[in-house]
Inverse folding.
């Protein structure tokens, strides 16, 4: 499943899709940035409730397919602009991290 | 590549919002050099953790990266407070990050352990009141 495909699924909304063709191959959940740095792997969709600008560097360096903002968290305009210019895919959802992960599991495995 | 390629960055200690830029830039540079994705990932994550530490704990510093035939070396120099107990600082979970910084997602005490894990060689030279110099190498 690509990031753009996920953004079209029920319960998910596109925030930025500069590289929407990227394939989602896994999931990582976490809000402590250096923990994510150590554990997230390339191609993961990273579910978090953090929304400050530093998440963009973390997503870029771990090579995540996209950031998924859980629980209705939104990005400030300047962070959104930075995500666009840096080419970091961001999706938002009102769902909890747990519910997002459950849906991702179904979508990734049904391919 | 017979001579080392060098990259220099000033890491601004006041501008928390741009912290991590040097690491993101190095990632691009290494990609242009055709270095393997896994190596790039290790270098850029190790460097990012060190860069952020200089911003959060030392008021900024300098980063020098050199690429030789055998390894990528990252040299981080700051003139911050220094680290009194390096062994303790290296432990997973140890952090002196203030609350305001923790609310941004930092302060898990995983930065130095990540740097150690992702590099093939790491040395910390620190003196209280003078500053800290960290050398890391990732073999090519
Ligand atoms: N450059 C530095 N100057 C002074 N103290 C430092 C420096 N780097 C690290 N430290 C000290 O070592 C501790 C551990 O660093 P480490 O990077 O592992 O965790 P952290 O930065 O507190 O949290 P995290 O990296 O998980 O966000 C810091 O809390 C700080 O006390
Ligand atoms: Mg740190």
């Amino acid at each position: 499943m690509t990031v753009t495909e996920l953004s079209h699924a029920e319960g998910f909304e596109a925030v930025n899709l500069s590289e929407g063709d990227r394939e989602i191959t896994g999931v990582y959940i976490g809000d402590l940035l250096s923990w994510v740095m150590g554990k997230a792997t390339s191609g993961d969709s990273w579910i978090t409730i953090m929304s400050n600008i530093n998440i963009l560097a973390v997503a870029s360096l771990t090579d995540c397919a996209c950031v998924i903002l859980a629980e209705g968290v939104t990005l400030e305009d300047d962070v959104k602009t930075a995500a666009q210019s840096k080419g970091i895919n961001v999706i938002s959802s009102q769902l909890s991290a747990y519910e997002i992960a459950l849906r991702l599991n179904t979508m990734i495995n049904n391919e | 590549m017979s001579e080392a390629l060098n990259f220099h960055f000033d890491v601004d200690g006041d501008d928390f919002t741009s912290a991590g830029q040097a690491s993101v830039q190095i990632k691009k540079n290494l990609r242009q050099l055709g270095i393997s994705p896994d190596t790039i990932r290790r270098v850029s994550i190790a460097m990012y953790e060190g860069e952020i530490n200089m911003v959060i704990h030392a008021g900024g510093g300098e980063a020098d990266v050199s690429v030789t035939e055998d390894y990528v070396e990252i040299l981080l120099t700051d003139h911050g407070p220094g680290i009194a107990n390096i062994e303790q600082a290296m432990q997973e979970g140890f952090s002196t990050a203030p609350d305001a910084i923790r609310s941004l997602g930092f302060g898990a005490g995983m930065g130095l352990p990540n740097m150690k894990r992702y590099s093939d060689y790491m040395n910390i030279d620190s003196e209280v009141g003078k500053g800290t110099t960290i050398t890391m190498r990732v073999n090519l």
Summary: The two ends of chain B are 12 Å apart (CA to CA). DSSP finds five helices and five strands in chain B.
